[in-house]
Amino acid sequence: MSAPEPTALLQPEGSLAASLASSGITELLAQLDRELIGLAPVKARIRDIAALLLVDKLRAARGFSAGAPSLHMCFTGNPGTGKTTVAMRMAQILHQLGYVRRGHLVAVTRDDLVGQYIGHTAPKTKEILKKAMGGVLFIDEAYYLYRPENERDYGQEAIEILLQVMENNRDDLVVILAGYKDRMDRFFESNPGMSSRVAHHISFPDYRLEELRRIADLMLAEMQYHFDDESRAMFTDYLARRMAQPHFANARSVRNALDRARLRHASRLLDDPAMIVDDEALTTITASDLLASRVFAAPAAE
After folding, report:
1. Are 258 and 215 in contact (CB under 8 A)?
2. Which of 63, 71, 197, 232 is the most exposed place for a label (fewest CB within 10 A)?
């Protein structure tokens, strides 16, 4: 989706809603709502940021003061809560409003930025920053950049380069830091320069059981599969059990469970050569495709 010309965003008179619609942001926000189940507070905050940026554009066009906004962000929450997807949509919104040139997302971790020996970190970090210019740099588990317990760690060098670019190139690059909230809090406490450059902190809540079930339906529909009545009820039971176990990763765990169910579904069809493999058989996940999961071998949580 290409960004509209700046004049298309600047209505001389009229409602903010009309300007929002003409900017194309309404369509992007609707797409985000379709893609992500739940997360109402996150979606509301993204809309607020979009509205603020649009108002700043309108104010500047009409001769009012509009200071350069600080757009660097921090997304906190557990794995699988939609942080990367929201970052992608945020990049598109910023592009639509003319705050970044290209609107692409470059997603990285510590290993993409930090080298293993002296002189290795600076070129790695600068190469990633070069790729991200004109868009959004998304650093997942950003707190791993800072390892004070290791005197020979080169993460601090990457942080110093990032800080300089975040300040000097903030009109051409937006950095989004992501990770667990408690670890990100400690990271900011240890790096006040980074904390002062991040204006927007958005918390991503865990999904509820019903939301995860809806996410599963959406994922299956995208792959052109569906549950039958028995398997739908069994998958709800699966989710309740899995959520009580360690290392549950929200929508990521749902996708992994569906991928394993598809494997069992394919094996079941292959193991029954007499089966008539019609469209219904090819697209239906049954209870047997779920029951083999190790999750059902453990007792259900009280």
Report:
1. no
2. 63
Q: Which residues pair with 178 in a beta bridge?
A: 75, 140
Largest CA distance in the chain: 76
Angle at 284 between CA 282 and CA 287, to 5 degrees: 130
Q: How many other β-carbons are positioned within 10 Å of the β-carbon of residue 254?
A: 26
Low-confidence stretches of the chain (pLDDT < 50) are 1-12, 302
Q: With beta carbons less than 8 A apart as the criterion, state whether 176 and 138 touch.
A: yes
The position carrying tokens 């903030």 is 170
Structure tokens of 137? 């740099």
Nearest one of 97, 87, 169, 171 to 136, comparing CA atoms = 87
| pLDDT (0 to 100) of residue 197 | 93
Question: 147-184: buried (b, 16+ CB within 10 Å) or exposed (e) per residue?
Answer: eeeeeebbbbbbbbbbbebbeeebeebbbbbbbeeeeb
197 close to 190: Cβ distance less than 8 angstroms:
no
Structure tokens given for 90: 């945020």
* Phi and psi angles of residue 3, each rounded to the nearest 5 degrees, phi first: -75, 145
Strands (E), the chain: 73-77, 105-108, 136-140, 174-179, 200-204, 226-227, 284-285
Task: Give the residue from 48, 65, 57, 60 showing the smallest Cα distance to 199.
Answer: 48
- pLDDT of the residue at 300: 61
What are the E-state strand segments in 34-119?
73-77, 105-108
Joined together, the tokens standing for residue 106 give 């470059």
pLDDT at 5: 46
The pLDDT of residue 63 is: 84
Which residue, 42, 83, 33, is CA-closest to 251?
83
